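Sequence only, no structure available. Ideas?
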Amino acid sequence: MTVKPVYSEAESRRWLAWLAGRMQQQGETVFLIERLQPDCLTNGRTLWIYGLLSRIAAATLVFSVFVTLLSLVIYASADPDTAWVSLLLAPILGPVVGLPVGTVLGLAVIARFERRPFWSLLAGILAAALLVGMLALLPLAATDFETAMGIAILIAPFAVLWIRRIHARTIDTDIRLTETLQFSWTTFRQRAFRFSWWFLLWWPLFLIQLIRALFAAYRTAPVARTAHPNEGIRRSVRNALAVTGTWALIGGVAGLTIALLGLLFGDLRAPDLLRFFIGGAAGLSLVGMFLGFTFGALDAVSHYTLRLVLFASGRMPLRYDAFLDHAAQNLGFLQRVGGGYMFIHRYLLEHFARMQAPEPDVRPELIAAEGVPAA
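Reply:
I predicted one. Tokens follow.
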């Protein structure tokens, strides 16, 4: 039996007042949970907490996934003992390495939010250097120099472009939904071979151009109408997993094809087929990882971090969708419109907006005690 949450009158009034004030400020008639942006954090302290927490969480997740995929690549290179050690260390190395990188990246984002271009640029360059350095050092600690440098050369441009893309976000566009995602071959061909003569000068320049074309070829678009609350975030997560899975499948098929050719015309054996499949899938999953974090995953992390900070500052409950449903079904103040909510009358919105109180200080103990809210 599911126990419905009980909200006090004071809590309901405070949360509805904040919602009304937010909708009035943005000129909205329908409120969508997934459209929340950090510009709703009017207190400078809460903005700093959001900037640091969101980027530390993202960097921790990136490095945890990276070490896990790296373990599979090492396994495919016939070093299972080292692979198991790396796999077991992934939950530890992710936070340890992600904390400094995420902190510097968070400072860069905060400086951009506060319109300090010089400090934002400086912190962004330092974050990119730290990220690339860590991505190169982690393989070097677990495998030979040639393999580590090969992984670093492949991943470094993706890491730098990922940093550049998330660094370009502003306080009102920090969370960019990936509700639909399509790949344009036309855009990829045009961008990839625009300066193909670079290859004749120095092949890494051509590789960078290919990677830039790859990022540009993915196109996102909003959905005209949603049916469920927070549907945009769920769609973003699905698209992030889909793009990562697609690259994993491409890598697995490529590795399996190479192994089959080696089996038919070389000295490979049947057991090598699985190794090549795992190695290929994990190798290109490293590419898909940065694409997935660019298109959907980072936005989901930032969205739930923002909601956690808003909860800690007393602006909303953890299960915000449950409260909004309660306000619509039991209190009668709101009306459900697809995946969004609106006040039943404009005068009611204005009434609650006038009740909005100044933003209280964040309670850090709540952030440490509670998990990320579920939609």
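The beta strands are 180-183, 218-221, 334-337, 340-343.
Hope that gets you unstuck.
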